[in-house]
Amino acid sequence: MKRSIQALCGATAIMCLAQAAQAETCGGVYVVQPGDSLSVIADSLYKDAGKWTAIHQNNIDKIGPRPNNLTVGMKLQLLCINGLPTGLEGGTPVAEAAPAVIEAPVVIPGTGARVERINLVTGDDYAPFTDRKLDKGGLLTELVQRAMEEAAPAEGFAIHWVNDWDSHLPTLLEQGLVDMSFPWSEPACEILPDDYRCQTFLFSDPLFEVLELAYHDTSRPVTFDKDADMEGKTLCRVSGYSTHELDKDGRNWVKDGKVKLERPDKVADCFQMLVDGKVDLVQIDEFSGKAAIKELGMGDQIAALPRPISVEPLNVLIHKGNPRAAELRDTLNRGLTKLKETGEYQRIAGEHLSRFWSGQ
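== Transporter substrate-binding domain-containing protein ==
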């Protein structure tokens, strides 16, 4: 009898240990419950209601642009951020969830000789997407690198870095000095056929989709439940950034003068104008907004409105005058499709986004 009890205790202990080991996971699948919202889920599982945008961004294909578009039973894929959440089905073992050592992107030095290979260009200072200080040069740099490796063009390829972003499209691409540049947003060409980018470039399949958010000063709350709520507001949008999303879907905020735009040169200037009361809102993608607010130390004063202005794709651009334009686009798209089919795309995106939201 004593041996039976000991055997039972031993079996139970093994079972408990196995269950504990299974529970020691990070991230995974969360099933939406009655009464849930993204902020409720974020507060419960990440202990930070502000992480609702991380959940939204990672499930944009299911949720769509409106964050309140949740249905009971919807399965959301949650990233592992600072070791949370734990114990969800499909999570990553905690021991494997730690960020990898940051690896610099591969940079091929120039020689001055003409090289018959596919040349792509990007630039720094666009976390978490492109920056040589980021792991493998950032999320989109790694995706483009891996997509081109998968496509394996016979002539080879190289990614170059030019931090003068204004030179990429009108100079480097138009003059044929490089073949492709990334990342750039694609305007709604079906309603803006005369837009410079629509007229001049071919677009790859989207590398990623970002939420364009409106940030407000929490001491001066702003409501954005419907498009009409924006009428009469003053928005700050950095000079050089597109504004097509302010007119699409029949909004015509800019076209019809429904909003006033301020266009300073720097993101920091927009946020300073916001806290000075010179503008009502700052429009910027959630990643650039989060990084700027953190750098400026304005986290207690500025917050994103819960309804995004739009969801915008980030693409690789190829000049239509390039005699191989369609071939180059198809090569990149072919590699990108392979990454998605094998799950490599999801792995790469998850690692970079987890690191960004962890503040690392």
